[in-house]
Every structure is written in structure tokens, then in C-alpha cells.
Amino acid sequence: MSFESQADDIEHDVFSGEPFFSRPGGKIFIIWLILTAVGVLIGFYAPHHLLPSLDASTGTDVFRTIVFFTVLAAPVAGFVYAVAAYSLIAWRHTGDQDEPPPDGPAVRGNGPMTVLWLVVSTLLVIVLLVWGLAVWSAQQVTHPNTLQVNVTGQQWFWTFSYPGTNIETRSLVLPLNRPVEFNVTSVDVTHGFWPVNMGNQVDANPGEVTVLRTTPNRMGHFEVRCSQLCGLYHSFMYASGSVVTPSQFSRWLRSQGASATSANQIARVSTS
Amino acid sequence: MAITTTEHGDAHGDGAGHGDLAGSGGHHETAEQRDHKERLALWIFVGGDAVFLLLELFTWFYLRALNTGGLWRGTSCTKASPCTDGLGNPITQEIAKANPWYSVGVAALAVISALLIWAVERSSRNRDSRGVISGAAGLALLALLATVALQIYQFQVLPFTTIDGAYASTYEFFMGSTLAHLILVTFIGFGLWNRARQGRYDEGNWHRVRIIRFFAVWIAVTACVLTVVSSLFS
Amino acid sequence: MEDSPIGPRAGGLYRRQNFVTALGFGIVLGFIGWLVSHQLLQGSNWGSDMVVTVTMVAWVVGFNIGMGTFNAPIRWALGHDPSHEDELYAAGVGQGSSRYWKFCTDHKVVGTQYLVLVMVLFGVGGTLAMMIRTQLITPHSSFLDPQTYNAIVTIHGMCMIIATIIMVSGPFTNFVVPIMIGAKDMAFPRLNAMSFWVVVSAVPCLLSTFFLGGVNAGWTTYAPLSVQAPPAMDAFAITIITFVVSVTVAGINTIVTVITMRAKGMTMGRLPIFVWGSVIGGALGLYAMPAFLMAMTGMITDRVTGTSFFVPQVGGSAWLWENVFWIMGHPEVYVILLPPVAALLEVASTFSRKPVFGYKVLVAGMVAIASLSIMVWAHHMFTTGWAPDLAGPFMLTTELISIPTGIIFLCVIGTIWKGSIWTRLPMYFVYLFLWNFIIGGVTGIYLSDVPADQFFHGDMFVTAHFHYTLLGGAMIGATAALCYWFPKVTARMLNERIGKVAFWMIAIGIQITYFGQFWEGFQGMPRRVAYYDPIFLRANQMSTAGAYLLMLGWIVLLYAMIHSIRHGKRAPANPWYSKTLEWHVPTPVPMENFLVDPVVTSDPYTYGEPEPEEPSRPEPELVPVGTSEQSGTGGDV
Question: How far is C201 from chain A (nearest CA, A)?
């Protein structure tokens, strides 16, 4: 494919003697700079202030990804917006609006610009992909110390059980800094097991068991919501959760009916 | 856009081939132009139908691989640990495989029907007499009706119903899809026979017959593919 | 009427068929279907599902019998071919405005009919949206009960999906593309009329769901929830199956028209970019619609005969539903997007007085988008747990799509670059598109990242993303198309003063509504909920306020349209001084579009280029339509 490259105009701009910031390219550059700065600021402000507190390793992954992607997107968005804005400032026809303006230059394309655009967008995609794959594969790593929790969704509540005990509870308690693996299923329709503050989720499918891995790294209360429409009371399908110290966890297990030995074993605390 | 204009000259070369259905919308076009449009439309439609066929196959193989709850064919269902069918009744043994020969018969009859339609086309191309052409079309229609009849009959002789797990469901879905396609082709075959009797395909007016032949061949192909999969991969 | 060129008996059965007979036959046959199935099947397993299915099918078939959709195939089978006069009647000759209520094969009539249908569908879908947003003004509103809310969410979604699929391909592809390529009509005018009336027959099925218990599973109707849904779900499935037929036929028609009916000199390389967008979108629909058909027929058999496709308890799989659905669902959003984007490029070119930038790259880009869209579907299933090993590959394909999508941005701003920007109303929407689609596209990239999607899936962030792309992007492109071709279709100029008021209300309304929803999403609000945690209150109030402003904006635009049709300035043939062929035929457009066959000698983007030397020739004599000298009545067909 050959393009009818009428790059004269652009080359003339870049290499001619006019001062840079008086030329279209220069002015667009300034607008772009401002918009990019705004975008970057949004990237640092919005996730930090709007996301819920993220209390797990996977939550940190989400936060960093959102910030990184926003900062990367800012110059791209800024460029499109800058050109659009400048076009209305500098090239707008201001005469009689009922008459068409005189024709613009018969530029049908710009080979170098197109190639540059493709190259830059490909590079961006590669960066995004590498980032995403790196984070994703790190999340797949299994640890020897993993706590197993079984999660069962049904219309319209969650039940949690801890293998090694007979406990079944409606609230989810987890020990701090311990990798956890949720084995999730449903007994009726598809639900979405979403411990929001952990920053990840997996569907609860009837007839299948799916796995979710994370490591809670902050103490406190967290929310579990249902993220997959599951019928009448989907809006009410939530559970409360908390991240506690291992010994608190062991005490809680015992309070739910586990024997002291199994509680200590699951919580990995020495018998006290 | 720069355009020049030309008088609408005589674009007709439409001696032969106008016996069959008048051009769409009354616009002038030659028989060749109309045939080109209709063939293109047919192939695009076949493309869409091929996507549907691929998804039928995807459904078969995916459910078979997942074997959710062991209920593809219920191989692990026993009296001791029964499974449940679509109405809540217990399934205590493996679901029997369907007799593949019925599907083979349907596919074979579909192929025969397509061949007979091809015979109609050949007769028309050879400018055979109206009697020969319509006779061939009549035979093709009979073959199509037989195919439909056999496909319907197969539903009665199945050793399972749709509630008996995923294999049974998908098997019957294949049969239903074949039946639907066959009914469509049979309607077209009826039109073919009727119009052949009226002499529409005399004098070498074979374009439309060819398009019908293409479609009948496609239906035969889909019937064969579904038969192979449902027979070999139970 | 003045001398009609056709006799009083031309048209046969079509003379007696119109929207009223269609309704009549539909209701009668539907009632008979209900009666018969009810007698035969009541008390049987799945009886009520079978009854609803049979009734809905009977309605659709009856409506189309009464409309005349089946006339041609049956006449073909019987060997009673229509005469030339019958064809002219079917094309609307001698009927005045009653032809808009009939099976009319004139592509301009079909295009206008689609325009009205699309506006009705947006009205219905928009009303449902306002009910949703009104419910969400407070965390625990008593405005709607949960079942009704879920049903409204579902039908809002499906109604909008139907509307957006046809919003450009229905009115504008049909009206404009044949003229743009120098043809007299579409390749298959009867199929064109059929595709319209088939959609019309599907709409009551969709709305009947509210009276059959309501579909409570969202427009994506995930199984097994949808398999358990009330009989409304059967009506929903029949709606889709009917709709699929229409879109498939329309896609075939568009592709064959463009390939076979271009005027002399109109090479593929000279086609206006809108034609490419229409063709590529139509072709992609032909891939997606069979998948929808597969999903819905499996759904019907699961509900009506107890098959085990999607119900795990009997050997089926919810993941099968999700896979087949999204194999349809993702290409489908590009079916929605490509025609409006291509229309937008025509507008950008005309109102920058410059050629479309990077025509070949743009066409290649649209083809790339369509091809890649077939390989990304499981990004909707990152959190289902169905195949963790496939997360990486689908993340790759999904992020790759941003490359050709980026090309579209390059070409829009390249077209604008150093142009003489004529800020008439259609051009306003080009700028709004640029603003909105960047936001929609970038947020899509967040969702394509698997770890990030694990937070956002099923959350209002997703809702905001797809509203930015579908409403802020595609629908704004469609609005640009509407404002652009309004003079050609209605023969009136659209009142720009009122239109600009509408524009600003819509533009600002979109930002407030959907930034509110991004806020909700960041905070962690799930989607499709009727009640929410009070921490989401502010964001919801913002979104609802924006929605009301947006709604008012659309109403003002509607008012502008109606006001202009009734009192607007008469439009000249080419008010925008554009170069595509549709602007070079008179307004109103003559029956067969061109009085003489055009011969094309260049593409329509010769802005800034000197006019070629016209060979001197006498002006061809223009004769009015309907006289014996008009091309098209010569000889028997």
C-alpha cells in the first residue's frame, strides 16, 4: 500500500524558521501538555480517593494498574483533545455559516504520521500487555501456607466453610498476611463472589468449583458483594468480612464450634 | 465527486433467462446480473449458516468435555448413586447411544436429494424437454419429502428424550436443526417442481436451479457433518 | 392522484395489506396459537413456556402474513410471478404517504420507516432508563419492586441493543448507500422491506415480557437464572430469534448491493467511507447473529423441552451459555459501532472541507476491528473461572483491538487537521464523539486488563464504560448522521438553534450521568441493583441528575426534528456542498434516485483539488419521473 503522502505541510512546520510555539504544532503541544498534566493528576487523585480501601495483595495490584493505565492514557487522550481543541481555535470558519468555507488542503493521508501512530499504539499495547501478564501470573503463584476457604453462593446469601472443621458461617473471617484460596461454588444460579476490598472476584457457578487467590494484608472490616445478577434479591446479597490476627482467627474458629486443635492448626498458631 | 452522465442506453441483453421471476423491483438487469446477485447472497447466507453449524459443534464438544455432574451420557450414574433428569426423575444407568443409522439415512437421503436437484439443473442446461425437467424435479421433491419423513421418524425411535442429559439434548438439537433446514429446502423443492412444470427452466434457464442446487448441497453437507459428529463422538 | 403509471389492480394482494391487516392477522393468529396450545398442552411439563412460545411465534408469523412479507416466496413457489406493474406498486408508486404503512420496497421508504422505528425504540428504552435512574435516587427506594426493576433493567438493555444495532444501518444505510453508489435501489428490495417489518413484529414480543412475569436476568440473560425465569423469557427468546432473521437478511442485502450494484466507474476504492462501514458492520452481523440464534434456540429448548444445554444440574453448563452469548455479544458491539463511525467520517470530511484522512488505512482498520472482534469474546468471562489459562490470550487479543480503534481517532483528527472547520450542527457531534469515545475506549482498556477487571467486573464501572462507547460514541455518531442527512430525508433543514441547545444538554448530560457511574464503579457498587449501600448515594444522585438532563436534551432534539419537518426551511439538494452522490440528486429524491445513470470518475473526497476538465457535451435532458421516457419502464421485465 502506498499513501499519497502530502507531508509537505507538516515538514514545513517542523523545519521552517518560525518559532515553535507560534506554529500550530507548538500551540497544540502546549494544550497537550496541560491536558496531559490534568490527566496525570486525575490518575493520582481519582483512584486514591474514590476506590474503597484495598486490603489485599490483589487490591494493590488493581490500584497500581489503574494509576499506571491512567497516566499512560493521559498523553494519548491529551493529544486527541489538543488537536480537536486547536482545530476549533485556529481553523474554524468564522464567516457566513450558511456558505461553506473554502476547501482545505487536499491532504489524503500522511504516511510517516500513520506509521508513527501505529508504532506508538503498538508499543503502548505491548507495555500494557506485559504489565498485565506480569501482574496476572504473579497472582497465579500458589504458596505452601495457603488457607483454604470454601464459599457457597445461593439465592441470596453466602456461606463460608473452613475445611478441617465443620463450621459454616455467614461472615468471612481471615487471618492477616496469610495467602488464602477460596473454592467457590453455587447451589442454584451463577453468583459473583466479590470480596470488594480484596480487589478481585470469581463467579460462583453451579456444578463447578472455581478458585480465587489473594493475600489480605490489612486488618479491618471488608465487604463481600455479589457481582452477578442472580435474581430477586441480588441487591441484598452481601456478607461482611474481617481480617484479624492469626490468634484472633483461631479464637473465632473455636467460637464457631471448631475444636481447639483444628482451630490452631488451621490458623497456624501454636497451642496456647 | 466528479460524475458524468450518460443516457440510459439499451442495457438489455435479456433475451434468455427472463422466464423466471421478474427482476427485483422492476429494475432492469440481465439474467446474469441477477444470478450473480443471488449466488452471492446465497454464499453469504451459507456463511452465516456455517457459523451456526460451528456453534452446534462447539456445543457438542464443550458439553462433552465438561461432562457436568457426569451427565453427558450419565456414565457414572448407577442405581446406588443415581443422577437426576430434567424432570427430577432418577437416572440409574448410562444413557443409551442413539442408533446412528437413522442419521446416516437422513444424511444419505439429503445427498440423494441434492444429486437429484443437480439432475434437474443438468436437464435444464441440456435444454431437455419440460417433461424431463419436471420429472427430475418431482423426483427431487419426493426425495426431500422422504428425508423430512425419516428425520421426523427418527425422533420416535430414539432411546432417550431431551431430558436425559447433555448428549441426548444435543443429539436431538442436531436432529431438529437438520429438520428445520430440510423443511426449508423442501419448500424450495416444491417451488422448483411447480415452476418446472410451468416450463420456467426450459430453454436453458438454469440459473435459479443452480442456486437451489448449491443450497441443497450445503444442507446435505451439514447433515453429513452433524451425522459424523453425533455418531462418532458419543 | 395524478395519472398513475400503473393500473388499479396492480400489486395484487399487497393492495389490501398494511400495518392494520398485519396487526389483525398477528393478533388473530396469536390468539389461535394461544388457544390451541393452551388446550393441548396445559398440564404438561413446561406447559406455560410452550404456550407462550407458540403464541409468540404465531403472532410473528401472523403479523408478517398480514403485512405481505410471505407473498413473494409463496407466489414464487406457485409460479405466479409479479408483473412489472406489481413491482411498481410494491415500490410505492401511486400511494402517497400510505406507502409508509405498507410493505414498500423503495429503499428510501424503508429507511424512513426504520428512522421512525429507531426513535420509538429509543423512546421506550429511554423511558425505562429513566425509571431505573429514578429508582436509584435513594438507596432504598420504594419506586419499583425488585422483580419489576430487574425486568426493566433487562428490557432497557435489550431494547437499546436492538435500537443501536439498527440505528444507522436501518435508516441511513438503506436510504443513503444505494444513492451513494449510484444504484436505483438495494439488491433485494423485497428483502429490505421484509427486514423492517420483521423487526416491527418482534417489538411487541419484547414488550409483552412485562406482562408475562418479567425477565429478571439482565439483557445478557445468563443461564441458569434465565432458564428459571417466568414465561416472559420465552417471549424474549422469540424476540431475539425474530430479530436475528431481520439483521441477517439486512446484512446480506447491504453486502450484495455494494458488491454488485455500483454505478459505472464506482470502483471499490472510490466508495465513500460510509459504504465501507455499512458493509463491514453488516458482514460482522452475519457472524454474530447465528451465535445469538444458537444461544436462544438452546434457551428455548431448555425451557420448553427440558434439554440440558445451560442447566448444570442436568449436565449443562452456564459457561456454555456465556461462551455462545459473548461469541455473539462482542462482535455485536462493533456491528453497532462501525456504521455510525463511518458516517461520522463523512461528516468530518464534509465539515472540514477535506478528504477523509487515510482512507485505505481506515478501511483496513475497520476490517481489522471486525476480524479481531471475533477473537476477544472471553474478556467478558475473565472472572467466571471457566479457563484461567485463556485469560492471557484473550487479554492479548482485546488489547490488540485498541490499535485499529486508535487508527479511527487518527483518521478523524487527520481529517480535521488544518481543515476549514464549518461548525454546523452535524460537526458538533463529531467533536462530542472524540471526547466521549476516548473516555469509553480508555476505560475499556482498564477492563481488558485481567487483574483490574477482577475488581471492576459486574460493577458500575463497566456500565459507565459501555454507555460511553455505545451512547457517547456510537449513538452520537448516529446523531451526527441524523443531523447530516436530515435535509435529504425530510427535505427540510433541521433548526440549528434548537439543535444546538439540544446538543449542549446531551453533551453535558452524558458527562454528568456517566462520570457519576464511574464514581459509583470506583467505589465498588455492583451493577443491576435496585438498592445500594448509602456510601454510593452521592454518585447515584449525580448520575440521576445527569440522566434527567440527558433525557431533556434528547426531547429537545426530537422537538427540533418535528418542528423542522413542519415549519423548517425547505432544503436544497446539497446544503452541505458535499461531494458524495446522494447530495447530487434532487431533494426530495426521485423514485429511482437517478434520472440518468451516473458514471463516476473520481472518489468523493476531492476537496482542495482542482475540478477536472469536463468534456463538453450537451446537458442531458432531465425528465420527470413517471413519464414514458423515464428509464426503467422500457420493455418487459
Answer: 29
Q: Has residue B9 got a pLDDT over 50?
A: no
Amino acid C365 reads: G
Q: Are residues A129 and A193 in the same domain?
A: no
Same domain for C326 and C227, yes or no, is yes
From CA B101, how far away is CA B112, in angstroms rounded?
16
- The answer to whether residues C330 and C69 touch, using CB atoms and an 8 Å cutoff, is no
Give the chain C residue whose CA is nearest to the CA of B5.
C598
Residue C77 structural domain: 15-94
pLDDT surpasses 50 at C239: yes
Residue A207 in grid coordinates: 456444578
Last residue of a domain, one of C94, C114, C144: C94
User: Rounded CA gap, C97 and C94, in Å?
Assistant: 9
C468 domain residue, yes or no:
yes
Show residues of chain A in contact with C223, CB under 8 Å. Answer: 190
> How many percent of chain A have pLDDT more than 90?
78
**Co-location of A223 and A188 in the same domain:** yes
For residue A3, being part of any structural domain is answered with: no
Per-residue confidence at A17, pLDDT binned at 50, 70, 90?
low
What pLDDT does residue B29 have?
81
Cβ–Cβ below 8 Å for A227 and C407: no
In this structure, are A186 and A135 located in the same domain? no
C617 — pLDDT class (breaks 50, 70, 90): low
pLDDT tens track for B22-49: 333 345 688 899 999 999 999 999 999 9
The 10s digit of each residue's pLDDT in C267-320 is 999 999 999 999 999 999 999 999 999 999 999 999 999 999 999 999 999 999
Q: Average per-residue pLDDT in chain A?
A: 90
A65-74 average pLDDT score:
96
Residues C78 and C171 in one domain: no
Domains of chain B in sequence order = 49-66+98-232 (1.20.120.80)
- CB pair distance less than 8 Å for C419 and A184: no
pLDDT of A12 strictly over 80: no
Are both C378 and C477 inside the same structural domain? yes
Touching partners of B (3+ C-beta pairs < 8 Å): A, C
Q: In chain A, how many domains are there?
A: 2
For the cut 50, the answer to whether the pLDDT of residue B12 exceeds it is no
Question: Running DSSP on this structure, what letter comes out for residue A210?
Answer: E
- Average pLDDT (B6-25) is 35
Per-residue exposure over C406-443, b if at least 16 CB sit within 10 Å of its own CB, e if not = bbbbbbbbbbbbbbbbbbbbbbbbbbbbbbbbbbbbbb
Cβ-based burial of C621 (10 A; exposed 0-12, middle 13-18, buried ≥19): exposed
Range of the domain at A190: 147-267
Structure ipTM = 0.93
- The SS3 assignment for C265 reads coil
Query: How far, in Å, CA of B209 to CA of B189, rounded?
Result: 10
Q: Give the number of residues written for chain A.
A: 272
Look at chain C and report how many structural domains it folds into. 2
Chains with ≥3 CB–CB distances under 8 Å to C: A, B
The helix or strand, by DSSP H or E, that contains position A158, with its residue range, turns out to be strand A157-161
Question: For residue A82, is it within any domain?
Answer: yes
- Say which of B52, B84, B173 has its CB closest to residue C301: B173
CA-CA distances (angstroms) from residue C347 to A46, B190, C115, C375, C421? Answer: 35, 49, 19, 31, 11
